DNA sequence: GAGCTTACGTCAGCGTTATTGACTTTCCAA
DNA sequence: TTGGAAAGTCAATAACGCTGACGTAAGCTC
C-alpha cells in the first residue's frame, strides 16, 4: 500500500490506498480477474448449447434446492422472460426438475436432477480449482480482505442474497 | 486438502479457508460484487446508445493513450470485428480519435477527444465512487488482500496486461 | 362468491455484445 | 518483389438481456 511517498501522517491512517490511481487499479483488477473467473466454466459450456446464464441458474438451484422461480429471479437479477428461456431448456434437457408447490400450488420449486448435479459438479470444479489456487497463493489474510472488499462493493439487496445463501450453506 | 475435519495440523497453517464452502462463497461474492461494480456506469450508458463494451474501450484508451487497435484487442480479449463495431461508433460520435501511425502507417493510434474524456470522467467517477467507498469501509489491509487474490485469479496474459498498465499509470 | 393479486409461463420483437469466416487495402520488411 | 502484419469491412449466427402483452391457475380478502 504505502507506495514510497512518505510515512503515514498524523491522521493515524495512511490514505494513499484511496488515490484515484489505486482505485483505477482496483477497477482494472476486477475486470481482468472476472475474465479469469468465468473462463474455465465457459470452456465447458461452449461444447454444449449452454452459456453463462445456464451456469448461474444451475449454480443457485444447486445452492438453494427447492427455490421458487421468483426467488431465483431476485438472486439473478434478470427478468422472468430471460430466466424462463434458460429454465425451459434446462428442464427439457433433464437437468432441472420443476415441482408444483405443496402449500402454494402457484409456485414451482426447482431442483437439479442427477444429470444436473453432474454438470454442476463439472462446472464448479473448474471454477473452484482456480479459486482454490488463487486463495492458496494469496493466503488466509488476503482472502479475508478479498471478501471484505467484495461485500462492501455489493448493492444492499445483493448483499442480503449473499448473506442468506451463506447462512444456508454453512 | 484439509476440509474442516479438525483443527489445523502441524503444517502450521490453518487451511479452513480452502474448504469447498469457502470457495463457493468466494465465487458468489465475485458474482454479486461484479454486478455492483458495473451497475453505476451502466446506468449512465443506457441513456446514450452505448453499452459496457463502449465503456471498456473508452477506459483503456484513456488509460493508454495512443494505443493501437491490435494492442487494445489483446487487452479487451475480443475479436477485431467486435471491437471495430464499437470503435466505429465512438469515432463517428467524436469521442475517439484515430490517428495513422508515424513510423508504421498501418497502425492506428487511438486517443480520446475532449468529449471522450468528459464521458470517461463521468463513467469512472461513478465507478470509482463505489470502489472508494468499498475500499474505505474495508481498510488498507483488506484492500491489499483484495488485490492479491484478484491478481492470483487472472490468466497469465491478463496479468501481464494488468501489470503493464499499472506501471504505465504509476 | 366476486374481485384483486400473485406466481408462472409464453409470444413477439428488439438491442448489445460476442462469435466465425472471408475478403480487401495498406504498408513494412526481408 | 513478395510475404505477412495491421486494420477495416461484410455477412451470418448466437447468447443474453430487455419491454410489452396476454393467459392461466391459485391464493387472499372483502
TrEMBL record, chains A, B:
GO terms for molecular function: DNA binding; DNA-binding transcription factor activity. SMART domains: HTH_MARR. Keywords: DNA-binding, Transcription, Transcription regulation. Residues 20-155 form the HTH marR-type domain. The keyword Nucleus does not apply. Coiled coil: none annotated. InterPro entries: HTH_MarR-typ, MarR/SlyA-like, Tscrpt_reg_MarR-type_CS, WH-like_DNA-bd_sf, WH_DNA-bd_sf. One of its GO terms (biological process) is response to stress. The keyword Transcription regulation applies. PROSITE patterns: HTH_MARR_1, HTH_MARR_2. This is HTH marR-type domain-containing protein. It comes from marine sediment metagenome.
Amino acid at each position: 500500500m504505502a507506495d514510497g511517498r512518505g510515512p503515514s501522517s498524523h491522521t493515524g491512517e495512511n490514505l494513499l490506498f484511496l488515490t484515484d490511481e489505486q482505485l483505477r487499479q482496483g477497477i482494472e483488477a476486477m475486470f481482468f480477474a472476472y475474465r479469469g473467473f468465468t473462463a474455465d466454466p465457459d470452456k465447458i459450456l461452449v461444447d454444449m448449447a449452454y452459456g453463462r446464464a445456464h451456469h448461474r441458474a444451475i449454480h443457485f438451484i444447486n445452492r438453494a434446492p427447492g427455490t421458487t422461480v421468483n426467488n431465483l429471479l431476485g438472486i439473478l437479477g434478470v427478468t422472468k422472460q430471460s430466466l424462463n428461456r434458460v429454465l425451459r431448456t434446462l428442464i427439457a434437457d433433464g437437468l432441472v426438475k420443476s415441482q408444483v408447490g405443496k402449500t402454494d400450488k402457484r409456485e414451482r420449486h426447482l431442483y437439479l436432477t442427477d444429470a444436473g448435479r453432474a454438470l454442476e459438479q463439472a462446472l464448479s470444479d473448474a471454477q473452484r480449482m482456480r479459486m482454490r489456487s488463487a486463495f492458496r497463493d494469496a493466503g488466509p489474510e488476503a482472502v479475508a480482505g478479498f471478501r471484505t472488499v467484495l461485500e462492501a462493493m455489493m448493492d444492499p439487496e445483493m448483499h442480503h442474497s449473499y448473506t442468506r445463501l451463506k447462512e444456508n450453506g454453512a
